[in-house]
Amino acid sequence: MLDTDHYARLGLGEIRDKVMAGHRLSYDDGLRLFACPDITAIGALAHHVRTRLHGDRTYYVVNRQVNYTNICVNGCLFCAFQRERGQQGAFALTPDEMVARVMDDGGVPFSEVHIVGGCHPDLPLEWFEDVIRRIHAARPSIVVKAFTAVEIAHFAKLAGIDTEEVLRRLKAAGLSQLPGGGAEIFAPDVRQRICPRKIDAEAWLRVAGEAHRLGIGTNCTMLFGHLESEADRVDHLCRLRAQQDETGGFTCFIPLPFLTENSLLKLPPERVGQHVGLDRLRTVAVSRLMLDNIAHIKAYWVMMGVKLAQVALHYGANDLDGTIVEEKIGHMAGSDAVQAMTIAQLEDMIRRSGFTPVRRDTHFNPVEEARA
Ligand code: SF4
């Protein structure tokens, strides 16, 4: 599969050699990988790297998402989740409701709660500190993974303090990890068109770096399949890689395909249609190949779709996320995946794809080796 002549014929001989030697790929290499029509050749290279890093292990986590509000001041064009206050479908959970969701584990204790929401116009930082403290006190054993860099910047703006201070205070309340959302695409022209009120790339990366320096790990994402070019995707990956070189705290990268349903952002015709699945697989594979300093690549089944997420495990991904329980952001955008997966379903999905399931915590430490 990794036949030298085949890669030479594709014009990827040098890239193949770099991958085999464990050398870093350049921005131009990333462009060439996106341009190559032989997707199985790209996938095989990515699978080689994934296997070198993780063998046949595929990770999942027993987790619970809590989306606390969809009321948001940003109004990103692509977002099907956002509502204005008072608009039909707008919701905001109370702290009691959030704690109740974390307490309700259906007999399967979560090891992680994943909390994200819109940038609410007036919920103050103290409200979030209080919620995190209460969740942490109610369930001290679970990792609280909460608030994207965009939310952190929003809390800072409302409080009139800097983002580092927000992170310090939330960490003191019990926050351990930030999810990776809000990165979208860093290219300024596209970012300006799809999410003009959101913090820019420099601010997103700065908040991630501040978290890393405070010992708070973060994930990172890329929203793709909208108005961005392949060059924008490679640029995005290179910027994440450079940040990781500097501060080292990215745990996992999650490529997020843009889901078109209920979105105000309309795609150009060439972006709609039968090549979407291949584009998603190629993006997972190129991400694995470019991000040589980020250990884990997630095929997020909610956004990727369950079937394609399984295939993505052969294109460089080594994690599927988890049980989720209840998810609003992807489903309001048209995800046709189920709301929740059981442990048995996740393990079965992994085994049927030819891998060994490993149940993990937020930091990718195995918490219970799945039965063979
Ligand atoms: S993507 Fe996030 S910040 Fe943008 S409108 Fe939706 S909830 Fe708000």
List the helices and strands and how they pair.
Blueprint: H1 4-9, H2 13-21, H3 27-35, H4 39-54, E1 57-61, E2 63-67, H5 95-103, E3 112-116, H6 125-138, E4 143-146, H7 149-159, H8 163-173, E5 175-178, H9 188-194, H10 201-213, E6 217-224, H11 230-247, E7 250-257, H12 276-290, E8 296-297, H13 301-304, H14 306-312, E9 319-322, H15 329-332, H16 343-352, E10 356-360, E11 366-369
Helix pairs in contact: 3-11, 3-12, 4-12, 5-6, 6-8, 7-8, 7-10, 10-11
The protein binds iron/sulfur cluster (SF4).
Iron/sulfur cluster binds at residues 72, 74-76, 79, 81-82, 118-119, 150, 195, 198.
Primary descriptors:
7-stranded parallel sheet; globular; 372 residues; MqnE; EC 2.5.1.120; alpha/beta; binds iron/sulfur cluster
